Amino acid sequence: MDVEHVRYALEELRFLAEVPSEVIARLADAASLQRAASGSVIFREGTRNANLYLLRKGKVALDMKVPGRGSVRILTLGPGEMIGWSALLGEGKMTAGAVALDDSELVVIDSHGLLRLCESDHHFGFQIMRRMAAALAQRLVATRLQLLDLFADLPAGAAAPVRLEPGDGP
Amino acid sequence: MRDASRSAAAAGLRPWRTHTVRVREILAEVEGVATYDLAFRDESAGAAYRFAPGQFNMLYLPGAGECAISISEDRATSAGYRHTVRVAGNVTKTLTGLRPGDTLGLRGPFGTSWPITDCIGRDVVLVAGGIGLAPLRPAIGSLMRNARQFGRRHLLYGARSPESLLYWRQYEEWSQAGIRVHTTVDRADSRWTGHVGVATLLLERLDAIDARNAVLMCCGPEVMMRFTIAAALNRGFAPDRIWVSLERNMQCGVGLCGHCQMGGEFVCRDGPVFRYDRVAPFLDVEAF
Amino acid sequence: MNGHSGADAGQRFLHKDRFPCLLEQLEAMGYSVIGPTLDQHAIVYDRIRSVDDLPRGWTDEQQPGSYRVRRRTDDAWFGYVVGPHSWKGYLFPTPVVIARAAREGGDWEFKEADDAPPKFAFLGVRACEIAAIRVQDRVFLAESYVDPIYEGRRTRALIVAVNCEQAASTCFCPSMGTGPRCTSGFDLALTELSDGFVVEVGTAEGAALLATLDSSEASISQLRAAQAARRSASEQIERSLDTRGLRDLLMDNLEHPRWDETASRCLSCANCTMVCPTCFCGSVEEVSDLAGGRVERRRRWDSCFNIDFSYMNGGHVRDSIRSRYRQWLTHKLASWNDQFGTSGCVGCGRCITWCPSGIDLTEEVLAIRGDAPVSEGSS
């Protein structure tokens, strides 16, 4: 695949906005493009996956399986967003499953190659990790808002329901 | 001194003047939410009644009390006025006992309105959460009419679940009128192919927008609005083109009873629709 | 307006023997005279039918958290400062019916209160209280919506002010620019001497009233005695509140640690708001007959110290004493200016006297000023 093509795709991504072009050029060396048809699985929850994905086009859902409740949709991601952080920051075991909801295009980055680049060039590493941290911080805030369940119907006068089950302690 | 107060009073509007209105129709919306279409019994009062998008009425159920309900009417002309109400307290619960033909009291309209004329020639983003779509519906109506006056128009709407998306029957009509409707929910199973996650994520993703010149109007739970504002500022929206509709305990509706005071503002009179930079100092102060 | 321009020109002297004629004349003009009277060990405002109802020979002693009436060594009629009542009890009464609903033939009919406003003559209004009435005029009468109950009473009321001749330890009216001398906003203003009153005229109504009484031109010695009596009030005032930059000082210090400290002493009892002559918050309650077909809407005074005051679906906005005390003080001394172009405080000191914990707002401001960064050039 044409490296220039990959590089162009990376430059367009909001995830990498304001990242210096030499950083993008090095990232492009470790990246490739992939299409995912609507309904196709990008990775499954609990499996090992060495790739970090940046969504170019389309929509991807993150699902988690809960015994007795089936597959719960945690979050959907749109163009410019990052998927599969556990490949870079975790042990490569996926914490959620990812499925394309529309015909999607992704930039796929080999996380081992990326980590090696980060370690060998800390300036580069800082740029990458800063983007990762910002994206995760945004996702954390969004998750907290979801957790607050702001639109829940509370009985008049009731505080937000907080329930501790036995054994919930530290 | 006494003469001065007399002349002020002569020009004064009467806060407690209450109209008899009749329930024309009750539309079940989503769980716990219904829309009441109310018509003035006195035709001359009805003919004289004018409201602007974002304003509210005090609905009065004798014996139970009053509650502030924003006008969710979206039609240019109407025999009645729609009020979308979520059951939340004593008064709204009593309201659910009414049937078409029953009467109740109405005072209003009160408060400030959405800045529709400021939107001319600009992109517009409406961000709504839950029942917060109701006060924005009249603004959607205004943005649908004279559509060519406005730039790109987006509605970002977050609700708890796919089943609790308010006014879902109208999204198609809004889309056809050129308003891009983006919905997202907090909770869904994997059969739902729409967005999952909070509305602030939709705002962060929104590409087709000239943020620096766009107008943003937001209504939803205060926590959600705070984060929406943060996301909007981050996207480059100007603080004086971000508008929020706030909620407080409102009793008189006209700035005389003190309940809804927030800093130098009475939310009922100086709001509920505020330009963000006017209330920014207070929004982040806990319990102010 | 005339009477207090120049060197007290045109002032009259009304002998105490002639004072009953003032009360009779007011009654004849259809006024209910409301003035100071001794009740349950306090000087309160109530119906005055004769000079015997006045607190003759009584005074009050006030400290933070303390109020006592005491015998005076003389027979002064108005020889006290201010008590727990203020005139808002009459202009902004509680409870009061503001509207009614009735079911007629199946439909609800609504009426505003068919209020026949009483005509009050207020006797013994202090300078700080005139200022307080002016503040409430601004709240209730000056915006597009006016309060009909207040308006009906206020426009009919006659004010006979009486200048303070002594001050309580809690007084700080000079800091707020409201006293102790009555300078405007009255129909008549009196200064009490041992045998009578030096009378100033504030309005045409006041002049017409005075003309019906058997008064004489005030002599130079009477004018001098009145001046000395008023001066003694000024000289006794010890407390002060530095209002320079006060609005910004408070609004810039909403997270000051002092709020926590004050909250540990504040009982959130709402006394300060009840005795404050400018606090105007109210709540409406529904009172229906047994069949539910007739409903009165009754307004009562409410207070930002009551937890339910800020209740909304799902919770209270101000759920801590810290947030409620901060709300009260910042409204009174800061955001009131934003809303009404005037401070909400007139320096009467009632909130200090009637606070069971003796919380003193002048000390609170001093504490916040003490270690807050001083903002330059603010007003």
- Weakly predicted, low-confidence segments of chain C: 1-7, 374-379
Number of domains of chain B: 2
Distance between the termini of chain B: 36 Å
Name the average pLDDT of chain C. 94
Helix coverage percent of chain B: 10-25%
CATH architecture of the largest domain in chain B: 3-Layer(aba) Sandwich
Mean pLDDT score of chain B, rounded?
A: 92
Instruction: Please give the alpha-carbon distance between the first and last residues of chain C.
Output: 31 Å
Find the count of extended strands of chain B (DSSP E, 2+ residues): 16
Write the layout of secondary structure elements.
The complex is a heterotrimer of chains A (170), B (288) and C (379).
Chain A lengths: L2 H10 L8 H9 L1 E6 L4 E3 L7 E7 L2 E7 L3 E8 L4 E2 L1 H5 L7 E4 L3 E7 H10 L1 H27 L22
Chain B lengths: L1 H9 L8 E10 L4 E8 L2 H6 L7 E6 L3 E6 L10 E6 L3 H6 L7 E8 L13 E6 L7 H8 L8 E7 L11 H6 L2 E7 L2 E2 L5 E2 L2 H7 L9 E5 L2 H13 L7 E4 L15 E2 L2 E2 H4 L2 E3 H8 L5
Parallel strand pairs in B: 7-8, 7-12, 8-9, 9-11, 12-13
Antiparallel strand pairs in B: 1-2, 1-6, 2-5, 3-4, 3-6, 13-16, 14-15
Chain C lengths: L11 E4 L3 H10 L3 E8 L2 E6 L10 E6 L2 E6 L16 H4 L4 E9 L2 E6 L7 E6 L1 H15 L6 H9 L1 E5 L10 H4 L11 E5 L3 E6 L2 H8 L4 E2 L2 H17 L9 H6 L6 H8 L5 H5 L6 E7 L5 E8 L9 E2 L2 E2 L4 H20 L9 H4 L7 H10 L9
Parallel strand pairs in C: 2-8, 8-9, 9-10
Antiparallel strand pairs in C: 1-11, 1-12, 2-3, 4-5, 6-7, 6-14, 10-11, 13-14, 15-16
